[in-house]
Amino acid sequence: MNDILPIILAILAALVVIGGLIPVFMKTRRNITKYPGTRDANDPVEPVRSAGGTLLEDRPAVTPERKSTDAVDLEDLETAEVPDDAAGLEVIAVETPLPVAGRLTRLRERLVRSNNILGKGLLALLSSDNIDENVWDEVEETLLLADLGTEPTMQLVDALRERVKVLGTRTPEQVKALLREELIKLVDPTMDRSLRTERHADTPSVMMVVGVNGVGKTTTVGKLARVLVAEDKDVLLGAADTFRAAAAEQLATWGQRVGVPTVKSDVDGADPASVAYEAVKAGIDQEVDVVMIDTAGRLQNKVGLMDELGKVKRVIEKLAEVDEVLLVLDATTGQNGLNQARVFSEVVNITGIVLTKLDGTAKGGIVVAIQKSLGVPVKLIGLGEGADDLAPFEVESFVDALLN
Q1: C-alpha to C-alpha distances, 28 to 19, 198, 202, nearest whole angstrom
Q2: What's the CA gap between 371 and 342, in Å, rounded?
Q3: Which side of the chain, N or C, has fewer Cβ within a 10 Å radius?
Q4: Angle, alpha carbons 142-190-115 (nearest 5°)
C-alpha cells in the first residue's frame, strides 16, 4: 500500500497540470482558427504590404520638417519585399476595370443627361425667327454664364453672327449643325490629348498629378491606374502626399484594387520629394511602364507649398524625365479653376488637365476657357464617383453631348 501511494499522488498531480493547460490550449486554438494572423501586443509590428509588395518601411524619409533645398536624404527611405502570404494582412480582391470603349459610351450618356443646358440654350436662341440684338445679347450672356470666358465668347458670337447672316432662313437642323461646327472649332480638336505613357528605353514614363486641396487627386490617380491597367500597362504608384492623414493608405488601397504596387511612407510629414524619388527608382528597378506620383493638395496662393511642388519635379528628374504633369480641376469651381491652372502651370509646366465633377455643373465652357488661356488640353474627364467614371476627353463627343 505504501508503494502504491506515491504513484497515485503522481498521477493526480499530472492530471491537475494537464487540466490547467487545456483551457490555454483551447483558447490559443480558437484564436488561430477564428483570427488568423492575430499577434500579441508585444510582438514586433510587421510593415503593411502594398499591392505587389513594394512599400516604404515605417520610418521617415527625412525629418518631418519641410525643406527648401533640393538635397534629398534617402538613407532612411527604403523599399522592401513582403511575401504574399504574410500573416495578418487584409486581402483586397483585384478588380477588372471596364474596357475604355465601354466606359466612354457610358460617360457620354451621363454627360448628355447632366450637362446640356449650354447647348440647349443656344439652340433655342438661334432657332428664333427673328434674331435681333437682344437675342445676340442673350447668346453672349449664356456663353459667359457657362464659364466660356470673355475672349472665346466674343470669338464664338462673331462666328455665329456671320454664319447666321449667310444662311438667312434656318431650320432647327441647320442651326444645330452650324452650332456644332463652331463649338468643335472652339474646343479645338487639333490639340494633342494623348497621355504619354510609353516606356522609354531605360526608364518608365513618369506622371505627376497635382492640384489644390479637395479636387480628388488621389482618387483620380487610382481611377487613371485602372484605365492604364485596362490598356495592359504595367503601373507603379508613388504616394508623395505625405501631409494628409491616410492619403498613402487610400492610394495603396486603389493600387490593391487594380493589382499595382504602391511606394509610400507610413510616417506623416515625410519629405514628399524623397518618396517621389524612391517611387521612380523602384519603377526603374522593376522595369514598369508608368510611374504615377500623387502629390499633396496645395493652395495656389501659398508660395512655399508651390515651391515644394517644383522641388518634387526637379528631384524626380534626377532619375527620369517627367512626361506628364496633370492638373486636376473641379469643373464646378468655374473661373477660379482657371486661376488655379495659371499658377500651377508657372511652377511645374502643366501638360494636361483632368476635369472632374463635370456631371455636377452645366458650365461646360470651362473646358474652352482653360485651353484658350493656357494652351493646355483637357485630356481626361470625370463624370461621377464610380471607379470607372474617368475617361479620355473627346471633342466631338463632348460637343454632341452638349447639343443633345
Answers
A1: 15, 53, 52
A2: 11
A3: N
A4: 30
pTM (2 decimals)? 0.73
Most confidently modeled range among 236-250, 335-349, 386-400:
236-250
Ranges assigned E (strand) in 127-234: 205-210
Q: Which residues are CB-neighbours of 121 under 8 A, at least 6 positions away?
A: 142
Question: What is residue 224's predicted lDDT score, i.e. its pLDDT?
Answer: 92
Lowest mean pLDDT among 9-23, 151-165, 259-273: 9-23
The length of the chain in residues reads 404
Grid-cell match 506628364, residue found: 324
Closest C-alpha to 322, from 264, 285, 280, 358: 280
CA distance linking residue 17 with residue 36, whole number of Å: 28
Domain 197-350 has CATH 3.40.190.10: no
**Which CATH fold topology does 103-187 show?**
Four Helix Bundle (Hemerythrin (Met), subunit A) (1.20.120)
Domain ranges of the chain: 1-35, 103-187, 197-350
